[in-house]
Design a protein that fits this description.
With 349 residues, the chain is mostly helical. It has four domains: 141 residues, no CATH class; 118 residues, Orthogonal Bundle (Helix Hairpins); 43 residues; 35 residues, no CATH class. 66% of the residues lie in helices and 2% in strands. β3 and β4 form a beta hairpin. α12 packs antiparallel against α13. The longest helix is centred in the C-terminal third of the chain and has 30 residues. The model has no long low-confidence stretch (mean pLDDT 88). InterPro entries: cNMP-bd_dom_sf, Ion_trans_dom, K_chnl_volt-dep_EAG/ELK/ERG, KAT/AKT. Pfam families: Ion_trans (PF00520). It is found in: Membrane.
């Protein structure tokens, strides 16, 4: 009873504000997690406090998700049943969300600084799905220019991939003892007269900038030869990274081509929504009916199909059987048709 009385609808204004708040933390966590993995062995005090605040926010978000109704993917109706909401969330991202909230920095120190524990930090990258969902919703928002949204999304994808690679590049260099620093890509690096001997003593900004430079020139496959892999582990990672970059490059080029050509499903939805809004403004329709019309268009876009389009390719005989399955019990139970012949009922169906 308590759960049923406190169900939150997805379009609740306070909940929408909360999703924006948690989105900020998701962006921070998605970018900071690779940075923490690569550049820190135990967080400084200020960052540690910030990390704890973030994990508390995500814990609250986990609790709220057990109260938030959802739209059924088959019927497209809002499901308010607490048991269904809980089961759906437990089957999806609950485990990853919960593990992501663990204070891995404290666990790492408590386990005697075992390096294997730090790999569990990567579970927090599942929070990047919130950012992906945000861009997906932003593309449908006609108040924001579609071209601008797509370009920003592509830039964020590229920056995130190079940022993550930069953190891993530096991490690979720090896994070797200080006596073997010269056998790493950064320890053997010399730019002009500047040498990166004892690179662990350099400031964080210079180390990150150098790592990011290596990641970007490797991604663009225009390496100038000034930075390159030195040991076998670095070579293996570079091969995997360049192979991934070929897929990423195809994704970026494909999306840019789609922007030029136009005609995507999202763009058609936006154009239709603009026409409907102009019609509503011209006829000065009320707020309630405006929301109903826009809600219907959004539902139509999300469902992406109509019954007519599904049935048009099915033979007439099978369509007749489908109609009997769907409608015959209702027609037979109607008082008007009581006592009618089976052939008549079938024709009505």
């Amino acid at each position: 009873g308590f759960f049923h009385d406190h169900i939150i609808l997805p379009d609740n204004k306070l909940y929408l504000l909360w999703t924006k708040f948690i989105l900020v933390w998701a962006v921070y966590s998605s970018f900071f997690t690779p940075f923490e993995f690569g550049f820190f062995r135990g967080l400084p005090d200020k960052l540690f406090v910030l990390d704890i605040v973030g994990q508390i926010a995500f814990l609250i978000d986990i609790v709220l998700k057990f109260f938030v109704a959802y739209r059924d993917p088959d019927t497209y109706r809002i499901v308010r049943n607490p048991t269904s909401i809980a089961l759906r969330y437990c089957k999806s991202s609950f485990i990853f969300d919960l593990l992501g909230c663990f204070p891995w920095d404290i666990i790492y120190k408590a386990c005697g600084s075992k390096e294997e524990v730090r790999y569990l930090l990567w579970i927090r990258l599942t929070r990047a799905l919130k950012v992906i969902e945000f861009f997906r919703d932003l593309e449908k928002d006609i108040r924001v220019n579609y071209l601008f949204t797509r370009i920003v999304k592509l830039i964020v994808v590229e920056l995130y991939c190079t940022h993550t690679a930069a953190c891993i590049f530096y991490y690979l260099a720090t896994t070797l003892p200080e006596s073997m620093e010269g056998n790493t890509w950064i320890g053997s690096l010399k730019l002009g007269e500047y040498s990166y001997d004892h690179f662990r003593e350099l400031d964080l900004i210079k180390l990150y900038t150098t790592s990011l430079y290596f990641a970007i020139v490797t991604m663009a496959t225009v390496g100038y030869g000034d930075i390159h892999a030195v040991n076998v582990r670095e070579m293996i990672f570079v091969m995997i990274y360049v192979s991934f970059d070929m897929i990423l490059g195809a994704y970026l080029i494909g999306n840019m081509t789609a922007l030029i050509v136009k005609g995507s499903r999202t763009e058609r939805f936006r154009d239709k929504m603009k026409e409907v809004i102009r019609y509503m403004n011209r006829n000065k329709l009320g707020k309630e009916i405006r929301e109903q019309i826009k809600g219907h268009l959004r539902l139509q876009y999300e469902s992406s199909y109509t019954e007519a389009s599904v049935l048009q390719d099915i033979p007439i005989s099978i369509r007749a059987k489908i109609s009997q399955t769907l409608y015959k019990p209702y027609v037979e139970s109607t008082p008007l048709f009581k006592g009618c012949s089976a052939e008549f009922i079938q024709q009505i169906v």
